[in-house]
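Crash report, auto-generated. Payload:
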Amino acid sequence: MSTSDSIAARLSAEGIVLPVPPTPVASYQPYVAMNGMVWVSGQLPLRDGSLVMTGLVGDTVSEADALLCARQCAINILAVLSASVAGDWERLLRVVRLGGFVASTPDFVGQPKIINGASDLIGHVLGDRGTHARAAVGVASLPLGAPVEVEALALITAS
Amino acid sequence: MSTSDSIAARLSAEGIVLPVPPTPVASYQPYVAMNGMVWVSGQLPLRDGSLVMTGLVGDTVSEADALLCARQCAINILAVLSASVAGDWERLLRVVRLGGFVASTPDFVGQPKIINGASDLIGHVLGDRGTHARAAVGVASLPLGAPVEVEALALITAS
Amino acid sequence: MSTSDSIAARLSAEGIVLPVPPTPVASYQPYVAMNGMVWVSGQLPLRDGSLVMTGLVGDTVSEADALLCARQCAINILAVLSASVAGDWERLLRVVRLGGFVASTPDFVGQPKIINGASDLIGHVLGDRGTHARAAVGVASLPLGAPVEVEALALITAS
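Recovered output after restart:
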């Protein structure tokens, strides 16, 4: 099975239909692709134009809910990456880095587990091309009140 | 009009004279240029050696003031980028990513609007070469009490 | 003296024996090396599998202790970098960027001095190859309760 077919099959098995990439919430691009690299802007847990949840982990947002938020960020990253290679997954060489931010109360220290919601989906869907380096930190607050934000960097081949 | 002339004209129209790049406040370089990329260190809203403002957004710093801080960070990024290409803007291919940090109270969720103060200036001054990917987050505090910090990554041609 | 011998001598003079790179605390890789770049995951101040300290700077963690944490993060970055070039420091061209995160109370604004604990060690051990761009910010909390986290990006030659 080709890489593209494998990725399509795994997305389908996860019940994921990649959305149109979310419109940036301010003055920037969803991604910039140049010199064989794709910088994906920080993705929020937006679905159909709305955040799936708002609030701080450790306050109104449970760990289980935050994990789903991270997964939604990853779905949006995959949507942006797909757009960056015009739907041709063969061109995606590797997701090399994720940067994960968790909005939490100061006593919450489980950021790695939360950001796994993004890492695990990307690793599962993209296979070897999805294993990545990562930084995960806890922040005071995120845009629009999102509990999680994840950015990504990938390597691609020229079209 | 050449790219360099256009950029000079737009800086002038904005009333901006690029400063000497601010001296790093600790043990690092203002930028590293290598392999066609320029990593610009996190810039604070320094002007003439002092922060234009200190404090947290949502507390003592208004959104309008924070926007001006982000703009000042962008002016400093432009100053560093100009130094990295020895003043020859033709060599700047693209600002590919901005990372924006807003020091705020936990209830503040307007980070995207604040960091637009940097994104809009860079997009306006650099035109197509200034459209970028971005991550914007809210943090507990920033160096020296700055309300905003912005780092950048750009692609350049060899000298 | 070769670059590798110089680096080995400086590590030895600092009394540093590079550890086996710490195992990631979640679903990611310690590093990804591709296209001549190495993305090093955010390193915590782990030593022999445990954090050397936990807590917030400005609360239970002193500046001196946080500096030691940043230094430990840098030791772990050096361990990961060494692994990425299979121990051959000649292949390391440059550490181009560090991203430093300090978990602190909102009134703490001395992040640059803390992250110098990482920058100074990397600059000292690697010499010209260790001078880097940097972003340092204060965050609400970090994984496992660590006071400091530092990620890195380096350029290397092919094996």
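Post-recovery validation: The mean pLDDT of chain C is 96.
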